[in-house]
Write a structure and sequence with these properties.
single chain, 233 residues, alpha/beta, globular
């Protein structure tokens, strides 16, 4: 399957998630940056609020595209021990890489949410979305972090993933919608006609658009005001 762009992928995913349309206990959480455009289409089609969950890949120093793990905004760290050993990374190396990503997470948190914490997720349905997944390091770190926030249900929505990664994801969540699991799998961008880098400004603009649209939904303002913040998470 070849997607025109991230928004096209989001529209197709929304067709498979209509059961959550208008669910006042559900929220779309997108992994920035690329996942935000996909998540926006889900938010619009399903009439659900959109927010971000910020997780950063821990890249190997000599191979920036190769993930040895990931760190989430709640502090949880996922490490691919096989990759760590293969790259011969010491604990000191890892500590430095993790610290750098935590600084970037804080920068993005302030920029994307204007300093707000995560939305209240306790006993809510979380629809977690990205523009695709390869090794899954970022996604697995996010799932680990979400489990500590006691959601009622976790749904992963992905346009594309390799079969082995998709199988691992399905074993960890309540529901998993992955539109395409091609083999062989080279890179996520290979399955899009247009796959330009998403900028910080585009993320902020998209989040504002989704928020304005959601606030216009009947009862949206009352529902959102009843959701306590988890500021300081």
């Amino acid at each position: 399957m070849l997607f025109r762009d991230r928004r096209h992928a989001g529209i197709l995913l929304a067709n498979h998630l209509q059961a959550y349309r208008g669910d006042h206990h559900a929220v779309v959480l997108a992994l920035p940056r690329g996942g935000v455009e996909v998540g926006h289409e889900l938010s619009m089609a399903l009439h659900l609020p959109l927010d971000v969950f910020i997780t950063r890949k821990i890249a190997a120093p000599e191979s920036p595209e190769y993930a040895v793990g990931a760190v989430s905004e709640t502090g949880s760290v996922y490490l691919n021990q096989e990759a760590v050993r293969g790259m011969q990374l010491s604990q000191e190396d890892l500590d430095g890489l993790i610290a750098a990503q935590r600084r970037e997470i804080e920068r993005r948190r302030v920029l994307y949410r204007e300093g707000r914490g995560l939305p209240h997720l306790n006993h809510r349905t979380v629809i977690l979305v990205d523009d695709g997944v390869a090794t899954g390091a970022t996604l697995f770190a996010t799932l680990d972090a979400l489990s500590a926030l006691n959601p009622l249900r976790v749904v992963v929505a992905m346009p594309v993933a390799p079969p082995s990664t998709a199988e691992r994801i399905r074993a960890l969540v309540d529901e998993c919608v992955i539109l395409s699991t091609p083999e062989p799998f080279a890179a996520v961008g290979c399955f899009y006609e247009e796959f330009e880098q998403v900028t910080d400004d585009e993320v902020i603009r998209t989040l504002h658009q989704a928020n304005e649209a959601f606030q216009g939904e009947p009862n949206a303002r009352r529902t959102r005001s009843a959701m306590p913040s988890t500021k300081g998470v």
